[in-house]
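User: Structure tokens for this complex, please. No commentary.
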Amino acid sequence: MSNQTSTNKRENLQGNHACALAAVAAGCRFYAGYPITPSSEIAERMSLELPKVDGVFVQMEDEIASMGAILGASMGGAKVMTATSGPGFSLKQENIGYGVMTEVPCVVVNVMRGGPSTGMPTRPAQGDIMQARWGTHGDHPIIVLTPASVNEIYQQTIRAFNLAERLSTPVVVLYDETIGHLVETVDVAGAQEIELHERKWAAGEADDYLPYQPDDDMVPPMTRPGDGYRTHTTGLTHGEDGFPTQDPDTANRVLSRLYGKLEHNKDIVECFEAMDTEDADILIVAYGITSHAARSAVHDARDKGIKVGLFRPITMWPFPEQALLAAASKARHIVVAEMNAGQLVLEIERLAGRDRVQGLNRYDGEHITPADILSTIEGIA
Amino acid sequence: MSQTKIKCDATGEDLAFNPMEYLREGLFPHFLCPGCGHGIALRAMVWAVHELGIDKNKLAIVCGIGCSGRLGAYVDANTFHTTHGRPLAYATGLKLARPDLHVIVITGDGDCLAIGGNHLIHASRRNLDITCLMLNNEVYGMTGGQVSPTTSADRYTTTTPLGNTEAVFDACKLAEAAGASFVGRELTIQTPSLKNMIRDAIKHKGFSFVEIMSDCTEVFGRKNDLGNSAEMILTQKSTMRPDSYGGNIVDEPFRPNFLPTGVLAQTDRAEYGETYRAAHRAKGSAK
Amino acid sequence: MNKMTSSSEPKNVLIVGVGGQGVILVSKILATLCQQQGFQVKQSEVHGMAKRGGGVFSHVRFGESVWSPTIPKGGADILVALEWAEALRWVNFLKPNDGTFISDTQHIVPPFACLSRKRSAEVGYSRETPDEILAHINDGYAMDATGIARELGNDRAANTVLLGVLSTALEFQADDWRNVISSFVPPKTIDINMKAFDQGRDWALKVKDSPDDAARHLRSEHAVPTVPTKAPYDAHDFVHLDINPAWCKSCDICVKMCPERCLQLDENLKAILSAPDRCTGCRICEWLCPDLAITVYRTPEAAAACA
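Assistant:
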């Protein structure tokens, strides 16, 4: 919370370990997980770190149970996290929806591997972009962060906790196997130097308290057992009082607010990087490990006199629409490079128009290389 | 309800017990069908809570989905209506994070044994201090009366139009084998005994599993011509055996109404939350 | 045959008590003794009320020849009662002018003496004191035989105490009594039974010729159990059922399960207390109402608050 001069520690860290350390630094005190490649190092590191801070690590019987357990712990008042990969992420989806509906803060890490199904557990992919957005059933908003380096995993994991706690919602941290297992030098901030946001606790009279009555920021203050409020939490569509209702007006009001609270707090939710976009004739959109290749390709293309820029969403969902449109304002061509069969490209087409958008896709367990992107750029230019 | 009324029972023990002090009276009448045994179990549970003098603010009720799952909303406590089959998973997280709470899970035969069966065996194994009340009415009531893992042989349900041919779970044996340190079964018609068993289960340190034989008159009873609610619960009483009955029926095709009642297993195995914390304290956290 | 009683008529001894006290043993001892003395004996009994509290009686008739096995009303020479209320129940079998009444004063209140299942309902037990009874009887002995036996170390020897008293009313030798008793009681208890016999016999001989009826009533230091005549409060007046019709779903459980059958569904199919006078406040309806629609109040304060 302070801005004192840096006493930052520099460490060589693997992406997954950085995620675990960031979680503990952000105040995570409960982790439930299930072993799955390539995210298991997060669970392993948490099992080591949490007892040091009087937290609890538990390896649950399955992916569903670990999602349920972190929601249970969060409803008890703890900051919580779980981590998984594709198949496990699929299993967690129903309970992620419960977290969205009941507005329970939690962080879910998905280290993407090749899919579908068991796919290629040890190979990187970026195939869960749409699942992260629409994985659970029904209309729901969700925050998804896509860090692109170990350092950014550290920062974005902390930010994920802050967003989850401030906005009372599940936050997904989504990165690919490559940066999960990448080792980089990371500034590991001391706890006193990280700005942490805590959950907003109810303070008024219990009789007056409505668990889903929002404040001005559209986020309702939470309670935890023992505070004396004795509230009811249900995944059923509920009114401000927390009890189930099928009244259309109430349902509309309450569900609309779930979207509204993210829209209303767009300033703190959205995050992106725009590089060399001001005059970009061609805009590359890339995220995760692919953005490393794109960055290299942009440099190479610029060296060749081609006006290319890079747009990198760090908050993937809700997608930073205005920022993309601004970055693409001069672009005749937009290339969306991703390690899947074309997922984010759909969103970019929706925003920028299909005519100028094309995908650069690969889903064979191999990376998209700078040369792949550069040749695409040269093909267009 | 007027709080000036004074009550006592035959033994004068519960002079002060008024179930509505532990229930959200404004939500009554509850949504259950006429004659549903779940309501009797609900009373027994809050009666047990009253006898133990548990602070409502420290009481957490975690429910799954189904008729049983709806009971939590009626309890004036910290209540969580979670997802289908998962209340034990949520309760595990809640209890590990908040060991100061009394955590009671209310679940049903489908919720606990079918979709949530994995969580039951692992919660039993882990032995965290959670009280699991499984209301067994032999059927998926809320979805219209489908066969469940405890539906007796030959019973008609909407998905066994020719009678149930599947074998069934003995939930108590399952929980005991998986390591639950308190296992019991009781009938709703034995309300004071049921209250006592729930009370002892809550008091027990470790994972306690209580199978409450409930009755589903509207969809299960009617489909199988089992009579009205009074007849159904009387039949349970006349066919359930006390625990002294023992294992004399092992070779019979399993039917829940031939099961023993009473406290079927109790051990003083170490409670998991304490074990976890003690282990990490003992080894020192600065590693 | 030479020890014939003065009358050629058979002697009639009626032995009564409740299940478990040893009525049959007493009558067997008496019958055996009579037979040994050369009499024809008929013994007729009703037993099988083994559950403690059930009435048991045995007719013993002996004489030169006995035809009928049973004693008619007003025909008993001696009534031996092991329990006070049984004594009173059978007292009209005694010969009105020369019958002998021998009874323990202990009270065993049988379950069926509770005429009402209401809590603290009055018990239907006799209120008469031994003095009141003895005043109306030709020859009577009432004693705390159980208390005496208890002092000797075994309540169950109370019947032998009464045999001691009985021995003074018949013309058999005391040693013959002792021999027969010893042959019937369990060997380990012979000593106690001999003492019990002697205590009963000695006391009876002492008071036999007393002109004072009250002397025939032995008050041991053991208090004779008293019968509760008045409950702390009369439950019947204070039972109040609160039935919330808005919550009642007409499932009928309360109606079917009420042991007193005092609930009904009304014309709207809501449960009502149709026979409040029969309600005992047992609370079964309250416990089993799945809708928590029934509340039973059972104190004077509650009844007043609900009134």
